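FORM 7B - TANDEM STRUCTURE REPORT

SECTION 1: FIRST PROTEIN
SEQUENCE AND TOKENS:
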Amino acid sequence: MTAPPAAHLISRERRKELACQLFLEAGMVALSGGDMQPIVYIRNEEFADAVSVRAKTTELRNLLDRVDEMADRVFADHEGRS
């Protein structure tokens, strides 16, 4: 009887909480034994290669850039009214 693969390495690189709610978590999981490839995860999405991870992190960076732009407009407008 072969033992099931065991969690060999789990790493939570980034974990950010906002108001007691999980906002973003990223890490990796590699299993010893078995055929499962290591994965990197961002929140609840798993990625099996670096290209896919980079596509997702680019998407997240673009979203945060848009949030920065929105904040600049909102606060500039508010300051202009004061």
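SECTION 2: SECOND PROTEIN
SEQUENCE AND TOKENS:
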Amino acid sequence: MTSAINVRKDLNKMAIPLIAQSLTSIFFSVFSQIIVGRTNIDTFTAVNAINAIIYILLGFSGYFGVAFQIKMANLHDSERNEKMSNYFCASFIMSLFIGLVFLIIGGFFGKLIISNYFGFNGNLLNKTYTFSLFTCIYFVIQMIIFVFNGYYRLIKKTKVMFIASLLSMIVDAISTVLFVIVFNMDVIGFGVSLILSTLIYLCVYIIEAIKLKDLYFKKFTFNEIKEIVNITLPLIIQEFLDNTLFILLFNSLVAHISPLIYASYLLVNNIISYLNLPTFMYGSSLLTFVGEEHAKKNIIKIKKYTVTSLKIVCTIFIVGILFILLFKTPIIGIFSDQVNIINQTKEILLIILFSQILHPVWQIYKYSVQGFGEGKQLIIPTLIINLIAITFLYLGVYILNLNINFACIGLFLNFLLLSIWFNRLYNKQLIKMAISKTS
């Protein structure tokens, strides 16, 4: 009983600051959008167009920090203390390199890319390009921050992440009001605020790392870079399969059913994104705990961390769903004031929520397998299951003209198959550990 309480305490201590960080980020993001929404149409379009692209690119590029976290967690304490700085520097240099490449491409070819991709010209093109230059610098800084994120998750100091994020967002809010509204600096004001707030974020991380005195800039080998890259690539591919390709295809499918149903589906998805925050935060904490216990060959502790995480996130998710169903009218009203969208959302709310019920399950097993350092084993199952699901769904919607209920049942089955397969991969790792302990 005491052991179960300690496991829960460990997970909560690490995950709760991350959840608080995400919720605070959402609040300040809404505030920022309010400021952007009160500018002229060219500025509004320029800022949102570039932010959308940067968000996607950072989603793929920030995994060097996660790879560092996984690699270090899977080393014994003595070996970790000896090699932490080496692998941190290897991750740092790779992240900095990618950031600088992006900066050079954005600086020299940004206007051409924007013109061809978005079809912008004239004043809108110039504004978008100007803001993109600031975001290219932001991208470099953010890549370095991602490596520090991995470090602070590894040493379980997620409170530092929350404090750094909070200070950064406060600075961003104040400087945005000052530069955009007071000094009327337009996209330059947004750009300066972005850089300033991100530098504050990084400075907090660096100051805290100096205080801890366990990171040093050391020489690293090509093999260490290669190891980080080998862990990073499967994570990027998994992210692409889970959160980009499948979502884009599924959204396209729903959009073809009906524009109104698609609008309602997106509204519910926005609500569900808040319910998914604990899953992602407890999952990212699992990367450290599973990795550490894997290094110690402690099968019982790995099971406890995984099962406890499952219980916590599933409980939060189910309670959240019940809360949404109980107060659906006021909750939907927060996200839209369009009567037709509100009515349609109420009709399809239950089936969409049902389709997502297993989302926390397969995500937790995914994080556990990644915590073993075996992320590459997830790629083929994900690809096969997603291809089967999309083919099945497209045949139903395009050929048989079936409705949103069919699409949601298909999504539920997709998550069910992922949960089963990822659970098998997780158990396979436990069996592998048990064999290695007895041999």
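SECTION 3: OBSERVATIONS ON SECOND PROTEIN
Residues 234-439 form one domain.
The radius of gyration is 23 Å.

SECTION 4: SIGNATURE
Preparer initials: ____
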